[in-house]
Structures are given as structure tokens and as C-alpha cells.
Model the fold of this input.
Amino acid sequence: MQEIQTREDINKLVKAFYARIRKHDLLGPIFNSHIADEQWPAHLEKLTDFWETILFGVQKFKGSPSIKHIEVDKNLNYGITQDHFNQWVSLWHDTIDSLFQGDVANRAKEAANQMAIGQYTMLWRYRPEN
Done:
């Protein structure tokens, strides 16, 4: 097992992870209904930028994940639950563990844990009943 050291490593991780997401019983339909097949290559590059920024401090990512998650939740009649984020985190951890080890891999897992909590909290705050 190798450590995450380069953008290419991050891209490998992102591609493997989202290949699993797209086939997942709970998460696949959400992602596949919001991202068209022809949009996936650009989306994966943007996600690679995101994780490169998070893990290596390279300022490449521009955008607001929170706004996108709020839009998707609204499109799903505010149906995203904590279980969706738990499943996302579980797949992320499993994918990392199948490909990488070391400090950066552990930081990637911890960052995902924190993101899941933050994103679900953000969704909850922006729901009409709140």
C-alpha cells in the first residue's frame, strides 16, 4: 500500500470512490440524477481540485459545496438524511483503505468525517421548517 503523495493519487482515489458511489443502492440514484454522464469527467476533475486543496493546501478549488448540497436536498424534497452522509463516509473510508495508507490517507478520512457533519448541519439549517 502506498501513501497519497500526488494529484494523480488523489485523482485515482476520487475516480475509484465515485465509481462506487454511482453503483451504490442509496447514493447512486441521487448522484446519477444530478450529474449527467457527460458531466462526470469535469466533475471528477473539480473534486480532484477540491481534495488537492484540502489535503495539500494547493489553492485550486473554487466553488461552494454547501450550495450544491442545499440545491440537491431541495430537489429531493428535503429527503437527504444523516444515513446518506454516513454511507458516503463509509464508502470514502473503504475506498481509501483499499488503495492507500499513511498520514494523508488518515487526514482524508478525518476531513470527510468533518465534512459530513458540517454538510448535514448546513442542510438542516436551510430546510423550510427550520
Remarks:
- The two ends are 45 Å apart (CA to CA).
